[in-house]
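--- STAGE predict ---
source: upstream dedup step, 1 unique chain passed
mode: sequence only
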Amino acid sequence: MVDAPFRWSIRVYWEDTDAGGVVYHASYLRFLERARSEYLRHLGIEQERLRNDNNVVFVVRDIAIGFVKPARLDDVLDVTVVLTERRPASLVFQQQILRTADGRLLSEARVRAACVDAAGFRPRPIPDDLFVEIAKA
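--- STAGE serialize ---
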């Protein structure tokens, strides 16, 4: 299962960089997270609603990230999201961060997000109605 990638644009600000104006490695995690959140919102799945209506949240279970080229201050980046697997209690995403100006690949990641109970953070299956919404993606 591989769909066309969802794209979310983001600009690099001072707060994302080190003293040399190069994006600090932890900033890439924020960029990836924002794009996944916007992807779910694009599907009509709002995280606040998940917590309030279904008592579930998605948390990053594991992530593998590779860095190819550095992003720099003021770069505009495209962060892509492709849902590659739907498991009973988790979702697996393939993501890339590209520099918009030249299309250059800067970073790639594989992210597994687990469905957990919002109160106790214990794993639980993705609710049936939510699973149906995600299956439409």
